Fold this protein.
Amino acid sequence: MISASRGATTGVKPRSAGFTLIEVLIVVVIVGILLSVALPGYQESMRKGRRADAKAALMDVANKQERLMLDRSRYTADMRELGFAADPMISEEGHYSVDRVVSGTCPVASLTCYALRATPVAGGAQAGDTRCATFTLDSTGARGASGTAPAGECW
């Protein structure tokens, strides 16, 4: 004999698979909170990594200046004389522009000393770096930085 309840509906609808609107909103809020906490730290970490580009470029120019001093007994104000394509030269990763600048101990016209400055390329990824905005290096080896952070933190 066949049961009468077989094939008959019980009046309860089966729950369909999927997420409710509340569940989706909770996930969106949690993701938003995580991003608001993690993103600033990630961006600062990326800025720190790109600062290495400025330091490497300054050291590269300084090494070439010292090599020129050994060969010709003088420094140069022209980056092209050091073998760079342009003056000011652009760092290897393209985040900084390096040029020779006037400093209190070394006027630009002097061929017995140099002062170098690395500034972020306008509109580039480092343009918004306020902690370590520019880096400096001179022929005495003195290192400096401008921005809200102490120079020692930047170097």
Summary: DSSP finds two helices and five strands in the chain. The mean pLDDT is 87. The domain at 21-154 is CATH 3.30.700 (Glycoprotein, Type 4 Pilin). Residues 131 and 148 are 5 Å apart (CA to CA).
